[in-house]
Specification:
Blueprint lengths: L7 E5 L5 E2 L2 E2 L3 H10 L4 E5 L6 H10 L9 E3 H12 L4 E5 L2 H9 L3 E2 L6 E4 L7 H12 L3 E4 L5 E2 L6 E2 L1 H12 L4 E2 L6 H10 L6 E5 L2 H10 L3 E5 L6 H5 L7 E3 L27 H11 L3
Parallel strand pairs: 1-4, 1-13, 4-5, 6-7, 6-8, 8-9, 9-12, 13-14, 14-15
Antiparallel strand pairs: 2-3, 10-11
Helix pairs in contact: 3-4, 3-7, 5-6
The protein binds magnesium ion.
Length: 289
């Protein structure tokens, strides 16, 4: 598969780089390759519960070096979208630090009185009182926004109700559907491209889901790469009316051997990659967008 025209990268996080807080094979090496080559890239997640700083720390605990400015969440995409729509607007938020921090930094005012928007993000602390407030505000004219459509999220004990499930409750009570910014809305990818100054013709999107990553990548005009480490398999791909540009078994396939290593392929002469600490320092210093 020719991807020689690709200079910038967007990648999904869960099911591509990590699975249940464990780094997937090749993920550390791919991130290191992008740092070494100074490639523009962003790690994307539909989860709006955490800030980019939180996620950077969580990834680091899994052995993956991703500076916070290289992370793009549905909360950041939502704040970016709303700031363009209505600079300095007001919001009522159901969500956690990932959402409230993003909206504060984008210049929004939090209020329960006649807000421009009601924004629903991920939280583990839904309250009947807050949901009632959201419903009444939407009924009286506040615009209804949700960070992502996911109905459930994973946990060690089983599924958790997620943003899409709570939005559905509000939809049932108000008769209004939210505008959803996260995947599969290609808005999420467009704002990510803008963030790193990348262009769709020369950018690839790596994801593990046909119904979000791949379809949104196609609609945003990206080179799409489906990795089978997540929940899609070959049989599942056949059922969709669209196909990714390419299918790989894991992100390790995107790591090219470094000079001196390739020539010894098959042997055990490959030297270990440079210490991640050295790389991350230079990256953190160099990325000031
Ligand atoms: Mg995923």
């Amino acid at each position: 598969m020719d991807r020689s025209h690709i200079t910038s990268w967007l990648t999904d996080m869960d099911g591509v780089l990590v699975q249940e807080n464990k780094a997937l094979p090749g993920a550390a090496e791919l991130l290191q390759q992008w740092r070494r080559e100074d490639a523009p890239y962003l790690v994307l997640t539909n989860n709006s519960i955490f800030t980019a700083r939180d996620l950077s720390a969580r990834l680091r605990a899994s052995g993956l070096i991703v500076p916070e400015e290289r992370i793009w969440t549905s909360a950041l995409a939502t704040a970016d979208f709303l700031a363009k729509q209505m600079p300095g607007g007001s919001v009522f938020v159901i969500g956690e630090a990932g959402m409230t921090t993003a909206l504060h930094e984008a210049g929004f005012i939090m209020t329960e009185t006649d807000p421009d928007y009601v924004v629903i993000g991920e939280t583990r602390n839904y309250s009947f009182e807050a949901i009632t407030k959201a419903i009444r505000l939407i009924n009286t004219g506040s615009r209804f926004i949700a960070t992502n459509p996911d109905a459930t999220g994973p946990s060690a004990d089983g599924v958790l109700p997620a943003t899409g499930a709570i939005s559905a409750l509000i939809t049932k009570a108000t008769g209004r559907i939210p505008y959803v910014v996260g995947k599969p809305n290609p808005m999420m990818f467009r704002s990510a491209l803008n963030r790193i100054g990348a262009h769709s013709e020369t950018t690839a999107m790596i994801g593990d889901r046909m119904d979000t990553d791949v379809v949104a990548g196609i609609e945003a005009g990206l080179h799409t790469i489906l990795t089978l480490t997540g929940i899609s398999d070959e049989a599942a791909i056949q059922r969709y009316p669209f196909r990714p540009t390419e299918v790989i078994s894991g992100v390790g396939e995107l790591v090219h051997p470094r000079d001196g290593e390739a020539r010894d392929a098959g042997g055990d002469a490959a030297s270990p990659p440079a210490a991640p600490g050295a790389d991350s320092d230079s990256d953190a210093a160099g990325s000031g967008e």
